[in-house]
Amino acid sequence: MASCNPYTLDGHVMHGTCTTNDKQTRTSSLDLNQCIGNAFGRLVWQAHGDFGSSCKCSLSVSSLYCFCHSGHGNDFPTSLDLNTNVGNDNGVLTCYIF
Predict the structure, then answer these.
(1) What does the pLDDT profile of the chain (98 residues) look like in tens digits?
(2) DSSP-derived 3-state class of residue 62
(3) In angstroms, rounded to a whole number, what is the distance separating the alpha carbons of residues 80 and 58?
(4) Distance from C-alpha of 42 to C-alpha of 59, rounded to nearest angstrom
């Protein structure tokens, strides 16, 4: 994701300015609900995971930091390195777990 910055997070939607293959820039957004889920208070890579309904998150560089409901009445701190499965596909923020 080094070819996209700066990053911002609006709820569960990540925004960034990404470089295309021909070195132009493009503003792009990715709904992280498409690729991240909440498994008992822990962020996991999951297609159509819909973590946003049960987690409150912030973004720092390329890591997502959240407090997520465990399903047992508690919220737990959890994080995920977005470089693992999120990248730039010709100027478009993309999740690569599908």
Answers:
(1) 678 888 899 999 999 999 999 999 999 999 999 999 999 999 999 999 999 999 999 999 889 999 999 988 889 999 999 999 999 999 999 999 76
(2) coil
(3) 11
(4) 16
Indicate the pairing of strand 92-95 with strand 86-89: antiparallel
AA letter at 72: H
- Domain boundaries of the chain, sorted by first residue: 4-95
Q: Which CATH architecture has domain 4-95?
A: Roll (2.30)
Closest CA to 5 of 83, 84, 85: 83
* pLDDT value for 89: 95
Edge-first strand listing for the sheet containing 13-19: 4-10, 13-19, 25-31
